[in-house]
Amino acid sequence: EKKPFLQRVVETYKRVKKDSALLLSACSHLLYNKELMASLAESGFDAMLTDPFLPCGPIVALRLALPVVFFLNSLPCGLDFQGTRCPSPPSYVPRVLSLNTDHMTFLQRVKNMLILVSEGFLCNVVYSPY
């Protein structure tokens, strides 16, 4: 079923907000579980492997004073582009989930721009509670 664009945007927003709240709750339960956190601290780990997409891993590593090794091909919210100061014009560089190539039609470029704008909004929804 093909739904109107605005309806899909609203449904995606609601789903992201719900999933984000669930992940935040799980992270809070982990961090406030004194017994588990003490056990992790006593284990003597050298480093923590984590996915940077979910902020709970780096937060746990910070709390345990462990260095972090990220495993993901890109950082969320365009932080990899900001960190490297690598230009990423949406008129030429396709966004990860767009399925576009670097040879885009005008409508694909518009879609790419909309994805870029929505990423900033969704990143704020996901990461602002942390």
Automatic annotation (TrEMBL):
Write down the Pfam families for this protein, in alphabetical order. UDPGT
User: What InterPro entries does the annotation carry?
Assistant: UDP-glycosyltransferase, UDP_glucos_trans
| Keyword vocabulary terms for this entry | Glycosyltransferase, Membrane, Transferase, Transmembrane, Transmembrane helix
Q: What is the membrane topology here?
A: Single-pass membrane protein
Fetch the PANTHER family from UniProt: EG:EG0003.4 PROTEIN-RELATED, UDP GLUCURONOSYLTRANSFERASE FAMILY 1 MEMBER A1
Major subcellular location class: membrane
According to its UniProt record, where is this protein located?
Membrane
Q: What is this protein called?
A: UDP-glucuronosyltransferase 1A1
Q: Which SUPFAM superfamilies match?
A: UDP-Glycosyltransferase/glycogen phosphorylase
Q: Which organism is it from?
A: Panthera onca
Tell me which family the UniProt entry assigns to this protein: Belongs to the UDP-glycosyltransferase family.
Query: Which GO terms of the molecular function aspect are on file?
Result: UDP-glycosyltransferase activity
Q: Which GO terms describe its cellular component?
A: membrane
